[in-house]
Amino acid sequence: MMFDSFSVTASGMTAQRLRMNTIASNLANVNSTRTAEGGPYKRKDVVFTSQQLDFRDVLNASGDKRFTQGVRISSIIEDPRPFKMVYDPSHPDSDKKGYVAFPNVNTAEEMVNMISAARSYEANVNAFKASKSMISKALDISS
Predict the structure, then answer these.
(1) Is 1 helix (H, G, I), strand (E, B) or coil?
(2) pLDDT tens-digit profile of 89-110?
(3) What pTM was estimated for this model as a whole?
(4) What are the residues whose beta carbons fall under 8 Å from the beta carbon of 31, sequence distance 6 or more?
(5) Which of 9, 65, 106, 141 qualifies as a FRET site for 117, CA 20 to 30 Å off?
């Protein structure tokens, strides 16, 4: 029970690391008009969930690890927004009308998401350090 805070913050750090990797993939493919699946790259986003527990569940758990709370990665979804259509008849992926479908990735939006993920990761690191410090102080008091 005392070390559950480590598990919660570690799950948050893992989730934010995956989010950062997904954002990096989106930015790396901002101009990818052709993928293995066919068509332009589709922006991806990570969906998080939390394990919902009520107070009675926590009391009845009595150290049972299956009740450890934290962030869970529910899925990685593709953004349903339409592709950006750009007129460029000389592009090898242009259609009959001369338009090229570019990924639905907005660089400014991805940069904001990256800053948010970095700050969330940093907050989890600080929470981890605070928990570590409190446990260390508690052990110092008891000895």
Answers:
(1) coil
(2) 999 999 999 999 999 999 999 9
(3) 0.81
(4) 102, 103
(5) 65
Between the CA of residue 108 and those of 7, 27, 84, what are the distances in Å? 33, 10, 15
Q: Do you know the residue count of the chain?
A: 143
Q: Is 98 left (phi over 0), alpha (psi -120 to 50) or beta?
A: left
Helix (H) / strand (E) element for 132: namely helix 107-142
Query: Which residues are paired to 50 by β-bridges?
Result: 71
Buried/exposed code over 94-114 (b: 16+ C-beta within 10 A; e: otherwise): beeeebbbbbbbbeeebeebb
Strand partners, 73: 48
CA 111/CA 140 separation, integer angstroms: 43
Contact 3, 134 (CB under 8 A): no
